Amino acid sequence: MVNGYKMPKDFLWGGAVAAHQLEGGWQADGKGVSIADVMTAGRNGVPRQVTDGVKPGEIYPNHWGNDFYHRYPEDDQLFEEMGFKCFRTSIAWTRIFPNGDEDEPNEAGLKFYDDLFDNLLAHHIQPVITLSHFEIPYHLVKAYGGWSNRKMIDFFVHFAKTVFKRYRNKVKYWMTFNEINNQTAWKDPHPLLQNSGLQLGKDDNWQQAMYQAAHYELVASALTVQAGHAINPDFQIGCMVAMCPIYPLTAKPEDVMKAERAMQTRYWYGDVHCLGEYPKWLPKYLERKNIKLDITDDDLATLKAGTVDYVGFSYYMSFVTKAKADEAPAYEYTEPDDFVENPYVEKSDWGWQIDPTGLRYSMNWMQDRWHLPQFIVENGFGAYDKKQADGSVHDDYRISYFRDHIKAMEEAVALDGVDLIGYTPWGCIDLVSASTGEMAKRYGFIYVDADDNGKGSFDRSKKDSFYWYQKVIESDGADL
Ligand code: BGP
Known about the structure:
CATH class: Alpha Beta
Oligomer: single chain
Number of helices: 13
Strand content: 5-15%
Largest sheet: 8 strands, parallel, barrel
Number of domains: 1
Structural class: alpha/beta
Strand order of the largest sheet: 1-2-3-4-5-7-11-12
Number of strands: 14
CATH topology: TIM Barrel
CATH superfamily: Glycosidases
Order of helices and strands: EHHEHHEHHEHEEHHHEEEEHEHEEEH
Bound molecules: 6-O-phosphono-beta-D-galactopyranose
Radius of gyration: 21 Å
């Protein structure tokens, strides 16, 4: 029914990346050490680890990324050739404040983003900026315990105000914390703890620590939204939620209740960001778990006054859960313990369940719950690509993933009335994987000749999906 549907002319087609996964130049021009710089590569079943400083003999893939720091003029050119209207990246906090707690910013770091944004704009591409994408200054982790400390709010807001003022005429769309909700449901150790910089010991009450960190991040986000609007009333400042809808495995009422609790556990962050308040079930849950949080009345007023302008979200897959035998009446959801496989969908080589309908379902769910415009700021297919001698890559699997998801996105807009700002596929140019630290898990339309150990020419070449996406943008999404 929606075949040939055209998205509006001002729809923001583009691509997405994050500073630490592609820039490299980890010590360039006065940059400080971020938590991403002390994250090892995950190898042979061993997950990525945060080491106490940079250790000789370890592999730290974020030190080189795909060398975007030095090669962005060539990359921006390729993005323009694909027809990008926008490019989502993040600002590495440690380029601006190397330790995170300084008063004065590092001018060379600010200049790097000035040059990058100017170059993008010269190519008719508007930057879309995430303030915190899985990296905080490592000094803040060591000296303050990361987001376990209320002081982080001031450091973050100071960073945000600094870049808001500097780029007030270059950037309109901002996001505060990348995938903020990928914290509370996951057990330690998990690489996404990079966001919060928590370093938990085995005996720590990880839920206590994560809910507290989440609260401080949400307060920081709300203050940031208010500060941004004061600096430029035209700013659009969003949240960024990792959206993986969770289905019940069966129609058994206990499974349905479990899935509802799972959705609450993963998406209450969105309630705070968009509605300005904690959902009613959460204090009850914290009380049962004996979790006591430092939340002041001022904090609650801040959350109410700092709601976001739009919902930015990533969508890769859906999850499924089912009730355990003794589940009722508490129903508690933890990842990955409560995952079960969906018998109806295919999976990627990394076990990510492929579910385009889940994207449309999610967009409807968020629209009904949060009543805000949406921006799909990540979506994509990680795969092992094979480069041919002439540099080409025949990635029909990626094209088919995108075709199905863009179709579902267009159905949500055309048939369900979702107000959608844009679509920026993840890793539009190959970069380092956040979860595994591999280069081999590739998402790009543009191939980068580098391996997991940072060896290779780093030359760029166009995959088949490059030409396909070019055609999609050119036809406003009609020609899939
Ligand atoms: C999201 C992150 C990105 C990104 C992507 C793909 O969780 O926001 O940073 O990397 O997922 O994940 P991965 O790189 O682990 O395949």
